Amino acid sequence: EFKQRVFSGIQPSGNLTLGNYLGALKRFVDWQDNGIETIYCMVDMHAITVWQDPEALRRQTRELAAGFIASGLDPQKSILFNQSQVSGHAELGWIFNCVARMGWMQRMTQWKDKAGKNTQNASLGLFAYPALMAADILVYHATHVPVGEDQKQHVELTRDIAIKFNHDYKVDFFPTPEPVIEGAATRVMSLRDGTKKMSKSDPSDASRINMTDDADAIAQKIRKAKTDPDGLPSEAEGLEGRPEARNLVNIYAALAEVSVDDVLRDVGGKQFSEFKPMLADLAVAKLSPISTEMARLMQAPEEIDAILRNGGDKARAIAEPILKKTYDIVGM
Ligand code: ADP
Ligand code: NA
């Protein structure tokens, strides 16, 4: 009974990676051509749950917007804006802080990972982050949330918040959104350690391919990527127990937009010394037009800002009546 609507967000916390591209940006762009309303947000209020230098945050937000647009986001088809532009996120976030339970937040694996051992010194915002994320999604009554695997637990928490709100207030007001996690690259791993996800916050630059890396950097990082001594299998089951090998094949498949089986049909039997340059060429071919366009857009900040202003207006127009009705339900 809820109209299909897609929402997702990315933090402007710097160093957009190949993981962000394959797990998020590229898939966001695929959705916009399905005739479904698509809303994409740069979640700056999530970014400041850990310290961000103000000038860096401003630059990274523009760079992320440039990354979206260069990856094919069409501002005529998708809404793109900053979270802080639409106050409804924070307002609904507060209401959800009062719906969600401490115990739910304590179970979040990302909280445990990011807060580390010294939880007493983590920001309160980092702890409450998943309630704000629920507001990001539900302030638009979004029904589908394309994300990487790391965000699955947060979308499930969003569902729990929607269910509890509806139950407590005896309404059928918020939809229970579905996480959409599909394709070969829902969890792109670090190039240095096949058990860790590739992340913009990893201190090792060699662990990730940044969307702004040049051809030489990409080739060098792939050449140095950790693998095992065996060659490439001819079927996917030959990648079992070989996380680094599997990761490189997954990346190839996602970039080439074919299945892992299709890749292995072509390259099965080759050594990694032969496969890595193929992967590097493919990554450069796909990423270099994007990084060139990002660089152009970074020279035209007024173009980016105009798109975001317009996106913010459109987002606000959807969020405002939903927020107004929420206040009404709560008795405000
Ligand atoms: P990061 O984890 O790099 O800081 P965000 O938390 O802002 O990035 O995540 C933005 C989006 O990118 C989310 O949908 C997330 O699931 C996706 N994503 C992040 N890292 C990866 C990865 N290594 N593989 C696939 N998707 C990823
Ligand atoms: Na993440």
Automatic annotation (TrEMBL):
Motif ('HIGH' region): 12-20
GO biological process: tryptophanyl-tRNA aminoacylation
UniProt GO cellular component terms: cytosol
InterPro entries the record matches: aa-tRNA-synth_I_CS, aa-tRNA-synth_Ic, Rossmann-like_a/b/a_fold, Trp-tRNA-ligase, Trp-tRNA-ligase_bac-type, Trp-tRNA_synthetase
GO terms of molecular function: ATP binding; tryptophan-tRNA ligase activity
Residues the entry annotates as binding L-tryptophan: 136
Residues forming coiled coils: none
Placement of sequence motif 'KMSKS' region: 197-201
PROSITE patterns registered for this protein in UniProt: AA_TRNA_LIGASE_I
Superkingdom, taxonomy of origin: Bacteria
Catalytic activity as recorded in UniProt: tRNA(Trp) + L-tryptophan + ATP = L-tryptophyl-tRNA(Trp) + AMP + diphosphate + H(+)
Cytoplasm in keyword set: yes
Complex and partners: Homodimer.
Protein name, UniProt field: Tryptophan--tRNA ligase
Organism of origin: Pseudoprimorskyibacter insulae
